[in-house]
Amino acid sequence: MKTINFGTTDQKVPAVVLGCMRINSAADPVAAIETAYDHGINFFDHADIYGQGECETIFAEALKKTSIKREDIFLQTKGGIVPGKMFDFSKEHLTEAIDGSLKRLGVDYVDAFLLHRPDTLFDPAEVAEVFNQMHQAGKVKYFGVSNQNPGQIELLKKYVKQPLVVNQLQFGIMHTGMIDHGIHVNMTDPRSVDHDGGILEYSRLHEMTIQAWSPYQYGFFEGVFIGNEKFPELNQTLTELAEKYHTTPTGLASAWILTHPAKMQVIA
Ligand SMILES: NC(=O)c1ccc[n+]([C@@H]2O[C@H](COP(=O)([O-])OP(=O)(O)OC[C@H]3O[C@@H](n4cnc5c(N)ncnc54)[C@H](OP(=O)(O)O)[C@@H]3O)[C@@H](O)[C@H]2O)c1
Question: How is residue 175 annotated by DSSP?
Fold first, then answer.
């Protein structure tokens, strides 16, 4: 497994992460964890809202049935999304979210905690307070964000002491916004519009690891594009290249992300 440094830290992490958002529909969660681990994927991505907490619980129960030790894996979770209310980065909610994830995962600490999606009404000083408490208590090692633009990250950085080492963003063959506008500079077509404030360049400048979520989906969870008859030309190319490089179309779609010199992680 190819490894990269986790943001600006010396922590080595695998280029491929197992996303656990759908582990509650896995036929055999133990096999999913063991197969990933045997292939060098010792990094697992969670969020408190995945299956309303069920995914973290299922993962913890499955992990106990393996011989894999807690210290040999990297556990990441996210918080800040509240079903029905949308987003909440208040001190009370984030504290509850992290403690809840630790309880469900059955661990004393998570390796990384990410703010899941921006909360318009957030107070960065409150977030900083929670991060300090969680870090000092040894409950969270590294911090990061998800779905945030450079302005939002800079605002947080004014208050948060710990480095923000990661940003989880949707990126892949069917989500090319981060690179489109760069290729269309000085043009007036829709792709020339930068929707995300130059987040790719910002992440590279600040050595924040980009984690590409839902890499095989098109639209917002509309479905998988691989083998999908809606995209015949793309699938023909994926199949041809997969044969040429002795891999699968899924492998190729992952390599498309990992080949970018920004040193990203794919969350499959
Ligand atoms: N930060 C965020 O806002 C955010 C949002 C969404 C997701 N995420 C993270 O990203 C992870 C991955 O997201 P995702 O599950 O939507 O994305 P995905 O990896 O793009 O899609 C996986 C789904 O596609 C199916 N699939 C069908 N054909 C496939 C193929 N050829 N190759 C791979 N998968 C195929 C899988 O089915 P089988 O299970 O049957 O293989 C599975 O249901 C999540 O688990 C979560 O950790 C983060």
Answer: B
Q: Which atom of ligand 1 has the smallest separation from the CA of 213?
A: 10
Ligand 1: nearest atom to the Cα of 169: 1
What number of other Cβ atoms are within 10 A of residue 102's Cβ? 20
**pLDDT of 217-243, one tens digit each?**
999 889 999 999 999 999 999 999 999
Beta-bridged to residue 74, according to DSSP, are: 43
Is residue 174 within 6 Å of ligand 1 at its C-beta?
no
Determine the average pLDDT of the residues in 141-166.
98
From first CA to last CA, the distance across the chain in angstroms is 14
Q: Is 216 a catalytic residue?
A: no
Cα–Cα distance for residue pair 27/223, rounded to 1 Å: 19
Extract the tokens encoding 192. 């020339």
**pTM, 2 dp:** 0.97
Distance 225 CA to ligand 1 centre (A): 11
Cβ neighbours of 246 (radius 10 Å): 7
44 within ligand 1 shell (Cβ under 6 A): no
